């Protein structure tokens, strides 16, 4: 599903909302997730999963073009862990 599909679903299912309001709603939703992650907060969406931030240590890497050794600095990376309920739902056998 693309962002525009999400906006369309919200717009179609809420006749009081304009397209622009639906678009702002989706934008606000993603902005809040991004802001929470930048504050090192965990975002839990029940039934969907958890967004969080992990620290990666610095390491020695290799430049694939030249083969030279390079230092890779430590960094923070976002991750998503799917909920058990969603995982179970996705892996149901032939219902």
Mind explaining what this structure looks like?
By secondary structure, this protein is of the alpha+beta class. It has two domains: 39 residues; 54 residues, IHF-like DNA-binding proteins (HU Protein, Chain A, Irregular). It has three helices and five strands. The strands form two sheets. The protein has a three-stranded antiparallel sheet with strand order 1-2-5. A two-stranded antiparallel ribbon has the order 3-4. Strand 1 and strand 2 form a beta hairpin. Helix 1 crosses helix 2. The mean pLDDT is 94.
Give a short overview.
The protein is of the alpha+beta class and 95 residues long. It has helices spanning 3-13, 19-38, 84-90, and strands at residues 43-45, 49-56, 59-62, 69-72, 75-82.
Q: Mind telling me the CATH class of the largest domain?
A: Few Secondary Structures
Specify the CATH homologous superfamily of the largest domain: IHF-like DNA-binding proteins
What's the mean pLDDT score?
A: 94
- Number of H/I helices: 3
Alpha-carbon distance between the two ends: 24 Å
Helix content: 40-55%
Topology:
Layout: H1 3-13, H2 19-38, E1 43-45, E2 49-56, E3 59-62, E4 69-72, E5 75-82, H3 84-90
Antiparallel strand pairs: 1-2, 2-5, 3-4
Helix pairs in contact: 1-2
Pick out its properties.
three-stranded antiparallel β-sheet; 40% helix; 95 residues; HU Protein, Chain A; 2 domains; alpha+beta; 3 helices; two-stranded antiparallel ribbon
